[in-house]
Amino acid sequence: MYEPKPFSKVLYIDLNKRTSWVEERDDLVEEWLGGIGLGIQLLKEENVTSVDPLGPDNPIILAVGPFNAAYPLGSKTVALFKSPLTGNLGESYAGGRSSVSIKLAGYTAIVIRGASETPIYLAIHEDKVYFRDASALWGMSSSFTVGRVIAEREPNAGYRSILRIGPAGERLVRYASVMVESFRHFGRLGLGAVFGSKKLKAVVISGRKALRVEDKVAYRKIYDEIFDKAVRSGLMKKYHELGTSMNVLPLNELGALPTMNLRSGRFEHAENISGEEMASKVLARRIACSGCPVACIHIAALREPYPHEPYFYKTTFISYDYELVYALGSMLGIGSKEGFLKLLHVVESLGLDAISTGVCLAWATEALEKGIISEEETLLRLKWGDYESYIKAVRMIVKQPNEFYRELASGVNNASKHFGGEDFALSFGGNEMPGYHTGPAAPLGFLIGGRHSHLDNAGYSIDQKSGELPSPEDLVERLVKEESWRMVLNSLVVCLFARRIYDVDTVSEALEPLGIPIPPEELLRLGEDIYRQRYSLKIQMGFDPTDLMPPKRIFDVPTFHGKLDKRYFKNALEYFVSTLKDRGIL
Hints:
By secondary structure, the chain is an alpha+beta fold.
């Protein structure tokens, strides 16, 4: 009798017909593991190449892998869709409980098709799928409130994950995020807008199914080795102690901290928003994603007095990390930790991607200064460091009261093409800039990476470790090699903070007790195959690598490697296109 492999089930949901069904996909699990590898194949099956990103034919795919709920730091879920921000491949990752909940509900992936005519949310409790009316939740001012209401209604507290959008997703802001639990997100590339276009307010997932292990003795041995590396070796210590916000001061010292729309690489008030300052003055606690022993999520307590009520205070808990400090701190000239936290809380409540929001506001501030736009468009005076004005502007990005804010809600690339100021619009492949001005590898990595993200290939790390710059050709090869390996990690799906723990030999050894024997050399080949499949699909969805151009601003501000050379980038991008042709991608 046919017996499917454990966790090879794909749950399909049609929002229009309000139906669901399950298919066994052993074929995909055996060939592509899970996560990004499997998700790309499912996305290809949905024929997404020419769909409208905000139309009903744009699917949402949530995928997990063999390490989720099985090993420490197997804590991520990958979401795949067509991005309304870039118009091609959308790929976003989130922690929290989502991956464990999907896995223990019995699924390796969930495919959401169609669109509802009225607001709904999905409740997936193992084999049961419910289509709940979300009319009362639609229009709520805070994504946090939505989560609390759903938590009161749905069962399985402690086992469930709650994914939901805020007003930004409802209003189809192209960089709207999806909040997971209270402090994690599918942040980049606009998944929240895709939810909103489908009238999908939230997805709740719970499950308590058991994992099956082929070799329990071998599993226990490798599990303990991985756990010890995570908690005792020091490899993850910095993430627990200060988190990624520990990068603020070192990058500022190097002149690599983008400040005031990258008019400088140093911020005079960096110490006020540094990881050390935040930890000593406002850190309330650290929490962890499900399946992680490290606890790198740092929660600040913002204590504010109630107006006209002496001795009465309101405390708000806000998660912060380096990218948020950069985008809503130094990038906007905000040197007050209280002001930064207030702005961040509004961004989170509304359901916006913080990086894109900060970069858009930084461009708008400079455009206003240069007279490219006026206060008639902005409706207020945007000024570096003025967090109260930025809070008002963030609300207007969501409300979109005029043409300016409608264009700004479509991203900095779109807004600058419409109004001008493209030279200082910090967009890479249509996605707003992450927080690293470290040398040539970081921006080149943003450009050629599948997500245009610092986490695609860690170019910033190459910059910081390189004494003498590699040739353009060598740099491209190194970036592509790293991104190919990360395709394996993103198929498992593990947290990329654990990449030094999960080297190729450890991954191979950890797969064996799960009944997935793959030698190290085959894992490397698999990563290259997934890279080719993913990039090919990205191009089919509308991406043109021959059109890639870095924003001119990055050549104006020196890095600690000196000023960037335009010819170096030209040669690197030409070589990258040739490698795509050599790999049969282009």
